Amino acid sequence: MRTEITPGQTSDYLGFDLVMAENLPQPKVLLADRGYDADSIRNSMEERGVQPVIPMRKSRKKRVGVDRSLYRLRNLVERCFNKLKNARRVATRYDKTAESFLGFVDITSIRLWLRHLST
């Protein structure tokens, strides 16, 4: 898992390049919500051999289909964020610095992963 912090008013697709750096394992599918519906994201993923599964925005002129059975798997990611936000410190961001906040997100992620392994 990779985490990065962007300003709260930043659109999702502007932080995309931070998260999808080249030093990560090569994914086969990109599951994302409408916030990531940009031609540049779709093109960069197709160049890397990754299938983008992103529903199109209502304002999109060029219509693009979505594999609904794959898109349903995005629910797993949303549930992971929900579990991360159960940690009050993550949900309210008490930490003053981005470094300490990301550290706590990492600690909470590790705790969730260990809990998952023990079940």
Structure, described:
- It is a single chain.
- This protein is mainly α and 119 residues long.
- It folds into 2 domains: 1-67, no CATH class; 73-119, no CATH class.
- Helices cover 46% and strands 5% of the residues.
- It is built from 6 helices and 2 strands, in the order αβαβαααα.
- The chain has helices at residues 16-19, 39-47, 68-71, 74-85, 88-92, 98-118, and strands at residues 29-31, 51-53.
- Strands 1-2 form a two-stranded parallel sheet.
Mean pLDDT: 83
Shape: globular
Number of helices: 6
Overall number of strands: 2
Cα(first) to Cα(last) distance is 20 Å
Give the total of domains: 2
Helical residues, percent? 40-55%
What gyration radius follows from the Cα positions, in whole Å? 16 Å
H and E order: HEHEHHHH
Percentage of residues in strands: 5-15%
- Low-confidence runs of at least 5 consecutive residues: none
Strands in their spatial order, largest beta sheet = 1-2
Main structural class: mainly alpha
Largest sheet: 2 strands, parallel
Write the layout of secondary structure elements.
Layout: H1 16-19, E1 29-31, H2 39-47, E2 51-53, H3 68-71, H4 74-85, H5 88-92, H6 98-118
Parallel strand pairs: 1-2
